[in-house]
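check this:
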Amino acid sequence: MLIEHRTYTAYPGKLDKQIADFEKYGLKVQKRHFGDPVAWLVPETGDMNSYVHIWGFRRFCRPGKETRSACCRSGVAGLPGAKRGERVPHEAGKQVNDAGFLRSDQAVASTCMNILETTQEIYHAFGNGDVAFMLSKFSDDVVLEPWATTAVESGKVPYYKARRGKAGAKEFYASMSAVELKGFKVNGFMAGDNHVCARVSIEFTVKATGKVVRDEELHLWTFDDRGLIISLQHFGDTAKHIEANTK
């Protein structure tokens, strides 16, 4: 995992206000670009006017060339205090990596836990019909059903179609109105690197045909470095779904 380590120095006596302003105005913006931070650190000894924030990524980004670093630089400068002449007098940032003789197991575990929690929250929102929350977890260029399964190629299964972007994700959830859900249970999760796989039992009636589908499925979620979903693929008994949607 690549670590973005940034140190900011506030004017004397302004540190608490700087932190409060960032929590109120800046954190939401940075989380939208980065996901959750690895750490936000304030001093106990040494320079009492500086603070550090740390973010974890899985690949290199050139400072000044990509949204993440640009967002880092603008995060503090864009706060209300900056407009009143309270901008930090000094900032320093660097991207660092594991030296090689120690493994970053804890960092990898933290990343897996974050995307696992996001996936669990999505299924909870699905049960509550909270489409807005689910869509907020998709990237703008997300791809649904990226691999052309038999069900996708048949064109007969409305909820199994290749879709792109948040509009496509919204269309996917809307397509579920074609079925009457009888049962939906998440039986477990597997997480690794930037993937989460959910094992799901599902039962529903296809409204157009009155036929019932009972299936055991795998849902494969893929995330980017910001913790947003870039891919969703369903694995199930495609023959069952095609037959149930055929009059």
The chain has two domains: 2-96, 106-244.
